[in-house]
Every structure is written in C-alpha cells, then in structure tokens.
Design goal:
By secondary structure, the chain is mainly α. Among the domains are: 118 residues; 141 residues, no CATH class. It is 62% helix and 0% strand. Keywords: Membrane, Transmembrane, Transmembrane helix.
C-alpha cells in the first residue's frame, strides 16, 4: 500500500502490526508529505533537526514532535478555513488544544451557535470568545418596548443603548443623528480610539435601506457612508485585511469630494495616512520584486504611530485576516462579477479534500499523549476515509 501511495490505508492498519511499526511508518509519511507539499507550493517544508552524535531521548523527541504537530495543524486549519469549512479548521486547532484559535475560527466562520456550545463545554478557557459569540446572538425586546428603552437610554446619556434600541423600533431613522453626532464629536479630539466609535457605526450600518434612502436622511446617509468608509479602513488595518485598505481610503476620499458634508475629515489627512501605512508596511506585505523598498520618512512614521495608538490590538487572538464563512467556497453560477474593492474578477478556488491530513493531525495528537494504539486505530479509521 505504501508503494502504491495509499498512505491513508497503510497508516490505518499499521497499529494492528505494532505501535513501533506504526510510528516508523508515520515518520516516513511525514517526510514524504512535507516534501510533496513544498513542491506543490501549498506548505513550507518542515524540518526537524536531530542532534549530532546523540540519539533521541524521550523529551527531545516529544518536543520536536509537538512542534511539528502544531505547524501541520496550523497549515491545515488555514487550508480548511480559506476553503469555507470553518468547523474543520476549528477541529485542527482543538486537536492540539489551541482553544482560543479554535473559537476564533468558529466565530469568523459565522458558526456562532456551535461556538457557544463548544465554549460552554470547554469552560473558563473559552469564556471570552463564548461571551463574544453570545453578544452576536442575543435576544431583543419588541419594537414597542425598544422605543421606550431608547428614550430612557437617551435621557441617561447612554449613546450605544440609545442607537441600538432606536434601530429596533418603528422609527430607526432616529438613531442616525444620535450616533453620527457622537462619532463626529469624538473623532474631532486628538486622542480618540477605534474601539469607542466603531461599535456605534457598526450598529448604524444595520439600519434598514428603505429608511436610509429617504430624502430627509440624505445628509445623514452621506455622512454615515464617509464615516463608515474611514473607520472601516482603520479596522481593516487592525485586522490585517491588507487588500481592502487602499480601496476604502480611496472610496472615502471620493465621497468627500462629491458630497457636501460636515465631518471632521480632510482629503489631505486621508491621503497622508494611506501613504504612511503603505510606507511603513511595504517591507512586510509587498514583494521587493514588485516595487523597490523605500524607507518611510520621519513624518510618515509619526502618522503611522498615531494610527496604531488609535487602533490598538484585537482583544481576541485569531480574529484577524479575511473571513471565510462556511460554504463560501462552494461552486457558483457562471455569471462574472467584478469586485468593487479590487477591480478583479471574483473567483472560486477549487474545492480540495484533505481528509488524509486531518487524520494525521489526530494521530499526532494522540501519539503525543501516549494513547493506546487501539484507541488510536479507531480514530484513524474514523477520520481517514471519506
């Protein structure tokens, strides 16, 4: 079976011979897997060094083994996530006890109910992510009650609650002036932060379209589009969603040129921030072959430093980068659509099966814990075959 390249079948029956034989066969597969993956361009070659003049002791073997396990699980999780299979991506992280990233992948994949269930079972270690998922699934009162709650919150000076309950009432347009005025006033100060204004704009973006297009809402609509474009660009920088940052800055600048609005933003300011971001991240996110690296100026470093202070870091590890919800990579119809952000044709990547690799992750995890070979064989049979 090995000579025929049927590693999944060979590894499944190897524990029936002996655990020692299975470990030897698994090491052979890992060498073959790492080499093939590197040739295909799907994964970096993984090297495990052996000390010269010394045999592997149990501790050294286990340390290198765990390092290899985490590298493989991380690569495979990203494979699954980009393929629109967030649940399998989370399983890869759970297999190596990386609870924080597992929960993050479920949330980013819009598997909120599953994230809550998993977090409840895992307990304290998943509490922050569970609480975040619950916030996205919370139940709300009736529209009549929402109007009363909004008026009460407004009297108490609670802007977030006022906006939230106005949006859920029979007159959601009342939330626009409350939220927009708060954001404009706050970003007029020099020490404002993204975490303060983003929740308000995030709520306002959910207003019903038929209300937003009303003639009486024209001014508020224009200001909301501009503020959301700018804050969205900053959020993209923090979440390391690099491809849409320039598009959002350009979008906001064009709106400022074409619309008569009263917002504390200038085109020159946006241009300066975009140039500073490009200059300070060029060496990290752009290839030197595409454009020569030019060190940022002192003024650009200062502007970028100010941006980072406003952005801060994500509170939950793993909630960065483009999101891929479950099923996002399924085949689509033949119509061609152009991305309004990149100007390129929206493509669907081929759906690739990695059942063999998920079985290897479970086998590695189980071996690291010295699980008896009978249990190990059961898991292999469960996860190796379609």
């Amino acid at each position: 079976m090995v000579e025929l390249g049927e590693w999944d079948k060979a590894l499944s029956v190897a524990p029936g011979v002996s655990v020692k034989y299975w470990k030897k066969l698994m090491q052979s597969f890992l060498c073959d897997f790492s080499g093939n993956a590197a040739c295909e361009g799907n994964m970096q070659t993984i090297h495990v060094s052996t000390p010269k003049g010394a045999s592997y002791s149990g501790d050294i073997y286990k340390e290198d083994f765990n390092e290899l396990l985490h590298k493989v699980s991380k690569e495979l999780a990203e494979w699954y996530f980009q393929d629109g299979r967030a649940v399998l991506a989370a399983c890869c992280h759970l297999a190596v006890d990386n609870i924080e990233l597992a929960m993050a992948y479920l949330i980013r994949g819009n598997e909120l109910e599953l994230a809550v269930c998993v977090g409840t079972v895992l307990g304290e270690s998943a509490a922050p992510a569970t609480h975040y998922a619950l916030e996205l699934l919370c139940k709300l009162p009736t529209v009549e009650e929402c109007m009363k709650l909004a008026e009460t919150a407004c009297a108490d000076g609670n802007i977030f609650e006022t906006v939230k309950y106005y949006l859920l009432s029979q007159e959601p347009e009342k939330a626009l002036p409350v939220g927009i005025d708060f954001v404009k006033e706050y970003i007029s100060n020099s020490n404002w932060t993204l975490d303060t204004v983003y929740p308000i704009l995030d709520l306002l973006s959910y207003i019903r379209t038929e209300k937003l297009v009303l003639h009486t809402c024209t001014a508020a609509r224009n200001e909301l589009l501009i503020l959301c474009g700018y804050i969205g660009a900053l959020l993209a920088i923090r979440k390391q969603y690099q491809s849409i940052v320039p598009a959002l800055y350009e979008y906001t600048s064009q709106l400022l040129k074409r619309r008569e609005v009263s917002v504390p933003l200038k085109i020159e300011q946006l241009s300066g921030e975009l140039d500073a971001w490009r200059a300070c991240t060029q060496s990290t996110y752009e290839s030197l072959e595409d454009s020569p690296y030019t060190p940022p100026s002192d003024s650009q470093r200062m502007i970028y430093s100010t941006l980072l202070k406003r952005l801060k870091e994500e509170s939950l590890q793993g909630i960065i980068g483009p999101d891929y919800v479950t099923g996002s990579n399924l085949p689509s119809h033949s119509d061609i659509h152009i991305s309004c952000l990149t100007g390129l044709k929206i493509q669907v990547q081929p759906n690739v099966r990695h059942n063999l690799y998920i079985s290897i992750i479970f086998m590695l995890a189980l071996t690291a814990l010295y699980v008896p070979f009978l249990v190990l064989s059961t898991f292999v049979f469960l996860f190796s075959f379609p």
